[in-house]
Structures are given as structure tokens and as C-alpha cells.
Amino acid sequence: MQTKAVTALYDYWTRQRGERAVPLRSAIEPADIAPILPDVFILEHNRLDDPRFRLAGTRLCAQFGRELKGSGFDKLFAPDLRNRVARITENVMAHAAPAVMQIALVDGSLDTTEAEVVLLPLATKGKAADRIIGAFAPLPGQRQPLSAFRYATLGALSVIDPSRAKNLGGNRPAVPMPTSIMAVRPAGLGQTMSRVLHLRIFEGGRQGDDG
């Protein structure tokens, strides 16, 4: 973990968890994490939808240039990564196993910003995790993006063993993820692509414009 927001949320989640497999949603007090709230989000999952934003911090929404509440978490990612990202979030809940994602964010000029996301399981009642609290933060030392992020690609994934969740040093190293097709583009394509990225793509449907 390389950012203050991600580290702070993980440490807080660990304290609230205590001896439980996962902490209860009721144990999370926004006032306790006030300095990082703009970077924090909560995902919920039901049988009909992939994990969706129940809450999203103001800075996170601003960086993507839209309100994220109610939208799918996987929709932040390049289309060819969405099924993989949905499975990652489902596994975090099913196995009560925290995960850290290393990602690259692409803005309107096709410049990239490196960031990390932590996904931490929560339970609303009982012992089963049915939500995720997470934090999103660009890595330090990078320039500010000139426009909102269009999509993210996934670089690596670290899964934290629940039995070792209080000792990060004992967990497995990050696993590199397959490269997204959206991360591979010929040199000089930036300006052309930035002019067409405003078009909406309907996966599995007919092509058409937004007009």
C-alpha cells in the first residue's frame, strides 16, 4: 500500500474488525475517517447486478467527472476488463479477503495516472460479507490530470490472506494482470482517440451515435 488514504482505511478496517472475519457496516463511523472520506466508497451487491456504488466520495466522483452513486464499479474499467473486475469484487466478499488493485487511469488526452484501490469486505448483518468499503488514490509524485478520467486499466492485484490481515508482510506479492487492449495503442493515436472518446459504446448492441 503506497498511499495515505488506502493505508489509513485498511488500518481502520482492521481495528474495527477485531476478532471477526469482517467488520459490521454499523461499526464504520464516517467521523473516524473524515480526512479520507472524499476518497472512500462503498459497494453493494445483489443477485441481479454486479457490485455497484452505494456511496462514493466527492473527490473520487470529481476525478471521473460524474456522480458514481448507483453505477457499476466495473464500469470504471476498460470494457475487456469488466468481467474480471466484477469477479475480483465478488471474491472479496465471498472469501472475506481484502484486495489491493494497482491501476492506470486514462484521461481525455490519453495520458495515464497510476493509482491504487483497496477493497475491504463488510457485513450488514450476520457473518457473511455483502458489501465492500474501499478507497481510491493516485500514487504520489504525479502531475494532476488535465481532464476527467475516462477509464482504468488493471496492472496488478494483491489479495490479503484473512488469517494474516493484521500482518501485511506475510501476504502474497502482487499478481500481474493481463494487459487490457485499451492499454495498447500505436504512437500518435492520442489526438485522434481523444476526439472520438466522447462517443458511447453499447456492448453487444447495434452501433449508433448519441445524437
Briefly say what this structure is.
The protein is of the alpha+beta class and 211 residues long.
Strand content: 25-35%
Mean pLDDT: 81
SS element count, helices = 4
Helix content: 10-25%
Global structural class: alpha+beta
First-to-last CA distance: 43 Å
- The gyration radius over C-alpha positions equals 17 Å
Strand order of the largest sheet: 2-1-5-4-3-6-7
Main pleated sheet: 7 strands, antiparallel
| Coarse shape | globular
Question: What series of H and E elements makes up the topology?
Answer: HEEHHEEEEEH
Number of strands: 7
Low-confidence stretches: 184-211
Summarize the structure in words.
- There is one protein chain.
- This protein has helices at residues 4-17, 58-64, 82-94, 190-196; strands at 40-46, 49-56, 99-107, 112-122, 131-138, 149-159, 175-176.
- It has 211 residues and is an alpha+beta fold.
- It is globular.
- The protein has a seven-stranded antiparallel beta sheet, sandwiched between helices.
- The chain is built from four helices and seven strands, in the order H-E-E-H-H-E-E-E-E-E-H.
